[in-house]
Specification:
- It is a single chain.
- This protein is globular.
- With 313 residues, the chain is α/β, with parallel strands linked by helices.
- The longest helix is centred in the C-terminal third of the chain and has 25 residues.
- It folds into 2 domains: 131 residues, Nucleotidyltransferase, domain 5 (2-Layer Sandwich); 157 residues, ATPase, nucleotide binding domain (Nucleotidyltransferase, domain 5), CATH 3.30.420.
- It has a 5-stranded mixed sheet, sandwiched between helices. A 5-stranded mixed sheet has the order 11-10-9-12-13, with helices on both faces. Strands 5-6-7 form a 3-stranded antiparallel sheet, covered by helices on one side.
- 39% of the residues lie in helices and 22% in strands.
Length: 313
């Protein structure tokens, strides 16, 4: 059976799969990223994991993978297949595409940004299926997005499109690691909500899921934290809507797991802010934590359908 190797590399864990031409996950595996061992060990672990997947495919299907796709965090030079920088993995200027191609005996490899790869899967196979224009926003430790156009993801001129988390929604607000202040992800990410709730009454170790439970239980302190986060998120999303005019807004990541506790007030807040813009559908992501692997698989299959080795993700 023809298949591709798909890798979704995160700060703490790696998810991998063998993916069929129809997007079916034929085999799945997971392991720690091992960032505590340093960037060289992380790269070695990725290469070993990919090689093990190649061997698994040969055993199960009697043939090698025809291509590979990998999604990684941080700044990516997709044209040259280089992982330029990732703070949470500690690496700089890693020629990951070339290293993987060499380890996999010349199999073509596509490299993409992890959130844009997840957005690619949601756009084609998940919540955005059928939408010609969509904006995918992942609300996790940070906030990042992916701009979908006719089934593909727009990477931007320099490979950094979709960084909606660094829109300034509260000028003069809390300092952000990007060097600005008042960024969306400092106010409305899952990490931001967890921090705010810990201070407001959740106590040490409280997270966004705890805040959502307290909101559902009617805790006024939690509701105040939630209300502020939703307001900031709505402001950022309306900026995105104004610039991009998407047909669908797909919201994923850990904060989206709160379900209607998030989506009901968020839809209302966005609708209140819309004036001349067309209100898009606001829907939860559908693929869960398989989106990254599915998207990496799509990258690999796309690589086989084009004469170029440059694939947008």
């Amino acid at each position: 059976m023809r298949h591709v190797i798909a890798l979704d590399v995160g700060g703490t864990g790696m998810k991998a799969a063998l993916v069929g031409a129809d997007g079916t996950l034929l085999y799945e595996a997971r392991r720690p990223t091992g960032r505590e061992r340093g960037p060289d060990a992380v790269v070695a672990g990725i290469l070993d994991f990919a090689d093990e997947l190649r061997a698994t495919g040969e055993r199960r299907f009697g043939q090698s993978a025809v291509a590979a796709g990998v999604g990684v965090p941080g700044v990516i030079d997709e044209a040259h297949g280089v992982a330029v920088f990732a703070a949470n993995l500690g690496w700089r200027d890693v020629p990951l595409r070339a290293l993987l191609a060499e380890r996999l005996a010349g199999v073509p490899v596509a490299l993409g940004h992890d959130v844009r790869v997840g957005g690619l899967a949601e756009g084609r196979l998940g919540a955005g299926d059928g939408a010609d224009r969509f904006l995918y926003v992942a609300l996790g430790t940070g906030i990042a997005g992916a701009i979908g156009i006719d089934g593909r993801i727009e990477p931007g001129a320099h490979g950094s499109s979709g960084e909606i988390g660094h829109l300034i929604v509260r000028p003069g607000g809390p300092a952000c690691g990007c060097g600005q202040a008042g960024c969306l992800e400092r106010l409305a990410s899952a990490a931001a909500v967890g921090r705010a709730w810990a201070v407001a009454g959740g106590g040490p170790g409280a997270d966004a899921a705890d805040c959502a439970k307290a909101v559902d239980a009617g805790d006024p302190r939690a509701r105040a934290v939630w209300r502020e986060a939703v307001a900031a998120l709505a402001d950022g999303l309306v900026m995105g809507v104004t610039l991009l005019d998407p047909r669908t807004l797909i919201i994923g990541g850990g904060l989206a797991e709160a379900g209607e506790t998030l989506f009901a007030p968020l839809r209302a807040a966005v609708a209140e802010r819309i004036t001349f813009q067309k209100l898009p559908d606001i829907v939860p992501a559908a693929l869960g934590d398989t989106a990254g692997c599915l998207g990496a698989g799509l990258l690999a299959w796309d690589l086989l359908s084009t004469d170029s080795t440059e694939v947008s993700a």
